[in-house]
Amino acid sequence: MARRRLSEAIRWQIIGMHATGASFKAIGRQLGYHYTVISRLVRKHRQTGAVKDRPQSGRPRVTSEREDRALLRIIRREPFSTSTVLKRAWLPNRHLSTRTVRNRLKAAGMAARRVIKRPRLTDDHKRRRLAWCLARQR
């Protein structure tokens, strides 16, 4: 289940309501959050004096959202490019792995794809297909 993020304004509202003497459950009922969410926020405010989220763990992203959108524009122009070609066209002065390119495309909902190679239709095939279609036209 996805968590609903508390905006900073609501966080300060919760701190203010608690300062006026409202209980965790009363604040939670009024704002539509569970009382444990309220109590954790108040505890964090007591310990740190702030209501902002603490820094998250993990490596920072190599590309910005703007650069990711640029990659999507490139893939729309050339939909069957390989990740190696996209990497060179996308950010040529930056050292990126092809895995980064594939991860960004996957996050944007672009699946890996390749051109389907199929044999060309011979003149005989074309003639028979046309005859089949004309026979079923009505």
From TrEMBL:
It holds the Pfam family HTH_38. This is Transposase Tc1-like domain-containing protein. GO terms for biological process: DNA integration; DNA transposition. InterPro entries: Homeodomain-like_sf (IPR009057), IS30-like_HTH (IPR025246), Transposase_Tc1-like (IPR002492), WH-like_DNA-bd_sf (IPR036388). Residues 68-136 form the Transposase Tc1-like domain. GO terms for molecular function: DNA binding. Residues 51-65 have a biased composition (Basic and acidic residues).
